[in-house]
Amino acid sequence: MIDFPEIMDIPLAKWVDGIMDWMLKYLDGFFDAIGFVILNVVLGFEQFFLFIPWFVMIFLAGLAGWKLIKSWKVGLVFMAMLLMIGSFGYWELAMRTLSLVIASVFFSLLIGIPLGIWMARSDKVESILKPILDAMQTMPSFVYLIPALMFFGMGKVPAMVATIIYAVPPVIRLTNVGIRTVDTEAVEASKAFGATAKQVLFDVQLPLAKPSIMVGINQTTMMALAMVVIGSMIGAKGLGMEVLLAINRIEVGQGFEAGISIVFLAIIIDRITFSFSEKK
What we know:
Blueprint (H helix, E strand, L loop, with lengths): L11 H15 L1 H24 L2 H15 L3 H16 L3 H31 L1 H16 L6 H8 L3 H12 L1 H12 L3 H9 L4 H30 L1 H5 L6 H11 L2 H27 L2
């Protein structure tokens, strides 16, 4: 009576393994195509950021702080942060990390915003996607590495896939919330003037929901950056790899330098993306 009855055992692990085996057998070409697209996008961003001279990138960060956040002091702080990253010897790794984050956010938005719009326009879709998003946000991030490794092997692509799965829920949720909280009178007025459903969405709902959507993009970007260290475990080179090496070698100084570099990048990206949600 103390032990749990074996007759009630649910072989969920076997079912999941069976599904994974079937997908690996029959959808191999599909995953190869996805991996090819993701890899080329990541490499494109990486080449772009590495092509820009370091002093130009620092100047652009300062300009963004001044123009977007409306504070020249913030711009100077951004420039100082990037200078410190370069002085640690991590400039190239920082640009590789930035390319991974930007690429993962790019794919997250391609997936998340249309799904958020779909959720906002259908209560049934919302009721289906909400528990899925809950599971995606509460699932330990390490779990995403297992299927990513099985489908795509080691390298940038599985790290990107795991990051996208981990980071996409906020932009879906906040796009849905932003559209649903648009003033109904504005929507009804546009319909009264003969606007089509497409015009209502693109000319009324999305512009009015922009602050909420931009907050979702901000949160997605932060969650993507939070996956940097975890992604390094499966071959994604960047600042996360330096943190992982420092942990393995118990080198506190190196770990602190790489960790503070990630923090600096996070602060810069967070302030810049959040500024868009405050623009009128």
